[in-house]
Design brief:
The structure is a single chain. With 153 residues, the protein is mostly beta strands. It has two domains: 10-73, no CATH class; 78-151, SH3 type barrels. It contains two helices and ten strands; from the N terminus they run ββαβββββαβββ. The strands form two sheets. Strands 4-3-2-1-5-9-8 form a seven-stranded antiparallel sheet. Strand 1 and strand 2 form a beta hairpin. The radius of gyration is 17 Å and the shape is globular. It starts with 9 loop residues before the first strand and ends with a strand.
């Protein structure tokens, strides 16, 4: 009986990454694919792991790069806004160290007693926070590059 090596199915997910000091980098990150071969892991899980480096595949030039998560300022990717009664929606504006301003909504399933913007920002286990900037676009922002956040409520 032949033993097959254990492999985790992966797919490439297109992203636009702003890296300090390099600037905008376009490429794709590897995300896990579900058993149905269609469902893909959200890039937020890849960004918020405790490993120091992230793998990015670039087409031009074709290469694999390893980026230090500490140097990644923000990452944008296609993603539909979540809906339903179990999510909290908080409109906000984020100002980054480079002067960039990002308007959007935090849409997360938060505990009812910890559903404030302050609580979400202070979640210690996540390096990046997710903001939906349109109905089809998400932006992951590295907390280390945030200067201030204001609520647009």
């Amino acid at each position: 009986m032949a033993v097959k090596p254990l492999r985790i199915a992966k797919a490439l997910r297109q992203v636009s990454m702003w890296v300090h000091p390099e600037g905008l980098v376009k490429g794709a990150i590897y995300v896990t694919v579900g058993d149905d071969k269609v469902t893909q892991e959200d890039p937020s899980y890849v960004l918020n792991t405790d490993k120091p480096f992230l793998v990015l595949y670039r087409e031009r030039p074709e290469e694999i790069r390893f980026y230090n998560r500490s140097a990644i300022v923000r990452v944008e990717y296609a993603s539909d806004k979540p809906t339903g009664d179990t999510v909290t929606v908080i409109a906000c504006r984020i100002t980054l160290m480079d002067g960039s301003v990002i308007d959007g909504e935090v849409i997360e399933a938060l505990h009812p007693y910890h559903a404030r913007l302050y609580d979400y920002l202070n979640q210690a286990h996540d390096r990046f926070i997710r903001l939906y900037t349109s109905d089809s676009q998400a932006c992951m922002v590295n907390k280390n590059y945030i200067v201030q956040v204001t609520s647009n409520a």
